[in-house]
Amino acid sequence: MSLVAAPDSLLQKNIAPLKEIHANYATVMPFGFIKSLNHPEVIYNQERQWFGETATGVRQNIKLLHKNEMNVMMKPQIWVWNGEFTGLVKMASEEDWLQLENSYQEFILGFAKVAEEESVEILCIGTELEKFIEHRPEYWRDLIAEVKKVYNGKLTYAANWDEYKRVPFWDALDYIGVDAYFPISDSKTPTIAETRAGWERWKEDLKMFSEKKNKKILFAEYGYRNVDFSGKEPWKSDREMTSTNAEAQINLLEGLYQSLWKENWFAGGFLWKWFIAHEKVGGETNNQFTPQNKPAEVTVAKYYTKFNK
């Protein structure tokens, strides 16, 4: 599960719903902020941030998750103010690129040290930073080398679904990380059969790429909203999409689990997303990504119970 950073500490009662659905891994996500797509400074670990976004917060979260025998992936994330897409972060000058590189390295290495101290199983070194990688590929290899000096666990990077084939440094990481918002179906309410058929194209591409790179593929994020046409452009979080469609969310998840979860090239995935205040979130009138308190939660539990025994 992708555990959403919260303003408060993680409590034992917050872990129980995760255990009930047999989730065996959780992502913790500290956040850094960039003021605009061409601003060269990552701001992070600030007092005004939510507790779960800070080093102290992720440490507390990790300790409690581990106490409950749940594994952890730490996934430091960047948020561009006004919600602009991180894949478009791009500097206007060499000076700005160097400043961004230094700032981002400080951000990642700081959390890599926390990950090592807390025995985190997987560290994700970035999420959907396509232009940053495209323009500064050598930097990323250097960053990975620096991370390996302070962190001994498994490493990945979370590439967007249409980005992963262009990432040039998979050989230096342990998993090919993919945010798996692949277009699956144009139907308003895709059937399970349609969903499985929609995965065939992408499934073959992923299998071939995994074999070419000799690395398993990990879905750093996957998920669907309970809205009409949720398989058409699954990345959309637009508030303008006001429908609710529980069947679409269920069928898309069913099709994904049936199509991929037993493949030997597939390492698993982190469902987007799960809030710690389980009793207060989701529900059938909520049409965002979380399956919490929706019919889809039963679907997730069914497959996680089956696969995570």
For this entry, give a set of tags.
38% helix; globular; seven-stranded parallel sheet; three-stranded mixed sheet; 8 helices; alpha/beta; single chain; 309 residues
Task: Describe the fold and architecture.
This protein is of the alpha/beta class. Helix content is 38%, strand content 16%. It contains eight helices and ten strands. The protein has helices at 12-20, 55-67, 94-117, 130-135, 137-150, 192-213, 246-260, 295-307, and strands at 25-28, 31-34, 43-44, 71-74, 77-80, 122-127, 154-160, 175-179, 216-222, 266-271. The strands form two sheets. The chain has a seven-stranded parallel sheet. Helix 3 runs parallel beside helix 5 (137-150) and helix 6 runs parallel beside helix 7. The model has no long low-confidence stretch (mean pLDDT 97).
Query: Could you describe the largest sheet, including whether it forms a barrel?
Result: 7 strands, parallel
- Identify the overall geometry: globular
- The tally of strands reads 10
The number of helical runs is: 8
The amount of beta strand, in percent, is: 15-25%
**How confident is the prediction overall: mean pLDDT?**
97
Specify the structural class.
alpha/beta
Task: Note the gap between the termini.
Answer: 16 Å
List segments where confidence is low: pLDDT < 50 over at least 5 consecutive residues: none
Radius of gyration: 19 Å
Task: Kindly state the percentage of residues in helix.
Answer: 25-40%
Strand neighbour order, sheet with most strands: 1-4-6-7-8-9-10
| Helix-strand pattern | HEEEHEEHEHHEEHEHEH
